Amino acid sequence: MQTVDIGDERLDARYQVVLDRLSARPSVSIPAACGGWTETNATYRFFRSRRVEADDVLAPHSQATLKRIAEHPVVLIPQDTTEIEVTRPEQQMTGAGPLNDESRLGFYDHVLLAITPERIPLGVIDADIWARDLEEFRRNQREKQEDPRAKAKKDRARTIEEKESLRWLEGYRRACTVAERCPDTQIVAMSDSEGDVYECFEEATRPDGPKKADWIVRACQNRGLCGAYPQVYRRLREQLASTRVLGTMDVEVHANTPKIPSDRKRNQPRSARTATVTIRATRVKVRGPQRPGGRARDVALNAILVREEDPPQGEEPLEWLLLTSLPIKSFKQVRQVIEYYCCRWEIEIYFRVLKSGCKVEERQFEDAERYLPCLALYMVVAWRVMYVMMMGRECPEMSCEEILSEDEWKAVYTVVRGESLPEEPPTLGEMVLLIARLGGHLGRTHDEPPGPKAMWIGMQRMMDLALAWRTFGPGAAARRRRKKCV
């Protein structure tokens, strides 16, 4: 919060108080998180202020994130979009728009999350939050039903600036800005198959302009190729499938349970497992597609095919077609690209913490102008929950006081361990396990590391215990006397 600047000192101060209160108890309602009616009213008045916008709320966190990025040699920036559903049977939120149909109202939140290759989240770089226009949505749905081919032709005639997919191009440009501001850090922007947008490839391979970030995109389209290839291999997947297998590796497949049924392959249900995949890689030149005003220029890029040859019975085989600017001259380099892409799952965990842990879809507001700054604030809260969890996994020997306050760790240690405090602060790894036990994690030898749910519940209880420690714990009476004298 060192760089917070909303334009009013009182709002700056109130922002820090609101962030403190809501981060202490992210899962409960705003009135329950605040200390009484006066503070609750002040919190809602903060979100109601015309000066407070979502970008202002997120700005100081994003600036602090840039400082953390500059401390690392390699930083990955996955970008993705999640639905924020705010459908209310009793009252419709003004400013919300339709999601996949008119019965579900809400917003789309497109986030750029900075993480290290060790999967430690450094913070949110940027977030684009928008709602669809209801009348335009109805018109598009009507045209699609009346004549799907005419609708598809009309969509192809639109420029990228007229499409929702512009967010992927703007996200990559934002990653390039980060690369400029952190010149000693290699920035790798990542997208799933929705980010397979040709204009992004054009932007990334353009020789002029600002410094370019490296990138990895999971391909969705089987694009046409150009150049000296046999006629039978004129498509991307066929060309890769014809190359030799470089080797195999094991990939962790995460469980997927889609909220909305879909025929799209990427939205099919799957169980968690470890998949053994074959790996192929080659450099290709992709033929530019037709765009308004003519055909786009051809671009050369590296391609990797990751395929599960023998999936479990009843499971769809894992298959990733990755396009990238990173080198693939050796099998080690190819493996690194795949390992980087596997880190993209962290943004899915972040969305889970934001929606299930911070319960942003349950916040009661009448209109978007009040709701969106609140959503931006909880995006900072969700990052801290993930940060503590992953730091405990990757840096367990670090002192817990690097992350937790003295009141926090002492209160948790005393309650969970039931012992007198140690002379030296415990390690972060030990404290994360103790916090997770407050959230229901059993901590048995064969158990997995604490997940996000155990952490957000445990951290909420930790903040309550820390408050009690400050109020009633050792030295509390002396602190009250000193405060009274002042």
Could you characterize the architecture of this molecule?
The protein is α+β, with helices and mostly antiparallel strands. It folds into 2 domains: about 70-360, Transposase Inhibitor Protein From Tn5, Chain A, domain 1 (Alpha-Beta Complex), CATH 3.90.350; about 395-485, Transferase Inhibitor Protein From Tn5, Chain A, domain2 (Orthogonal Bundle), CATH 1.10.740.10. It is about 40% helix and about 20% strand. It is built from 16 helices and 12 strands. Strands 1, 2, 3, 4, 5, 6, 7, 8, 11 and 12 form a 10-stranded mixed beta sheet that branches. It has a two-stranded antiparallel sheet with strand order 9-10. Helix 4 (about 55-70) runs parallel beside helix 12, helix 11 packs across helix 12 (about 370-395) and helix 13 packs across helix 15 (about 450-470). The longest helix is centred in the C-terminal third of the chain and has 27 residues, at about 370-395. The protein is globular, with a radius of gyration of 25 Å.
Q: What share of residues is helical?
A: 40-55%
State the end-to-end distance.
26 Å
Structural class, by secondary structure, is alpha+beta
- The fraction of residues in strands falls at 15-25%
Radius of gyration: 25 Å
Find the CATH topology of the largest domain: Transposase Inhibitor Protein From Tn5, Chain A, domain 1
What general form does the structure show? globular
Domains (count): 2
Mean pLDDT: 89
CATH C-level class of the largest domain: Alpha Beta
Low-pLDDT residue intervals, each spanning 5 or more residues: none
Total DSSP E strands: 12
